[in-house]
Fold this protein.
Amino acid sequence: MNHQAIDSGGAEALELAGRHIVLGLSGGIACYKSAELCRGLIKAGATVQVVMTEAAGQFITPVTMQALSGRPVYTSQWDGREPNGMAHINLSREADAILIAPCSADFIARLVQGRADELLSLMCLARPIDRVPLLVAPAMNREMYAHPATQRNLAQLQADGAVVLGVGSGFQACGETGDGRMLEPEQLVEDLIAFFTPKVLQGQQVLVTAGPTYEAIDPVRGITNLSSGKMGFAIARAAREAGAEVTLVAGPVGLATPRGVTRINVKSASNMLAAVAAHAQSATVFIATAAVADWRPAAPSAQKIKKDGSGQAPRLEFTENTDILASVARSPAAQAGRLFCVGFAAESHDLLENAQAKRLRKQVPLLVGNIGPDTFGQDDNALLLIDAQGSLELPRASKRLLARRLVQEIAQRMAASAALHHQAGTA
Ligand code: CTP
């Protein structure tokens, strides 16, 4: 059997390492969030060059942004610091991406018109359009955001090749409530990371199960397990970043839903089975990370079971739950190679042998083994990937990094199996 190990690369790779981001601020109260955004980008490994409009300077000072980015801020096209006197050219040529956050209604209109009478819009116009992406995070009052002029401008901006990020909804500085808030700094960092992620799962519909299940004994008690759901949530996020449409069927966990992922909350294994059955039809990848209870109480009591004073514990009878993964793996779509199934195995010992046996038993092309007690609730893990060719070790790393690696491995195997099916079809 072929066995390989992948080097995790020593220190955890920062997700924006090596990226140079020009962060543009236009005038808006959301400038207060740009300070945190700048820190978030730097924490993720990016270098950040801040460029501000004059209006932005009314909301936050260049001194603050300089201190946070560690670089002098540019505010004028007449900046004498550039030897060639062309800040707009130099700044835009160095950038891996330009992110305007906040992007005001006025600034959106300026971009659409191709205005060039101040540094930030001049720089956006002068950027090499094929090489330097422009992302904008709109921020404005809800009426301004909903106005046909703004919506028309946003559509035009997108047609001109810019990436228009979403807006948040809720309480606004003006006292009104609605759409138009700038996304939170951590959401923008997530969006930027996703933007740079190779789209290896573009066009795929990925269905993920995650977390524990809860099997009721009576209305106040039940049986569950220590699965935190972190691995499954990280996989859902990584698949989404890789371009897939992702549905996440989650057992009872308190984790935040990754951006752009559709989440279905379930409690019991039977609920999970029903949710998976409803979505497996349209899926092209199924990743079963959930720690599904193998058994459920056969007859859960409708009322709380009380002590009867006899000192005797109640006797519980159990029924086996349907194996969700095995049932999906047996479906015609999976058998025909249209639905790629990935199982997980939480073992306590003999990981390789147990995981190999489980892969064959569940009839899945890829099974991911891990040591249960070492992973439950942790932020990091180590994985052993088993397929028909052999095994591949992904050494201890954050679940986030492992999820990204796993998504690449899945994409590679799907491409190989698609090529095989194609060859078989044309032979
Ligand atoms: N699984 C499932 N439905 C179940 C049980 C398990 O979909 N009712 C999936 C899990 O999500 C995981 C894999 O099957 O992908 C784990 O298989 P299982 O045989 O349950 O693993 P263990 O619990 O580790 O099995 P065993 O107790 O036999 O070691």
About this structure: The pocket of cytidine-5'-triphosphate is lined by residues 209, 269, 288, 290, 292, 294, 321, 323-325, 343-346, 358 (CB under 6 Å). The radius of gyration is 26 Å. Residues 205-293+320-426 form a domain with the Rossmann fold fold (CATH 3.40.50.10300). Residues 399-426 form the longest helix (28 residues).
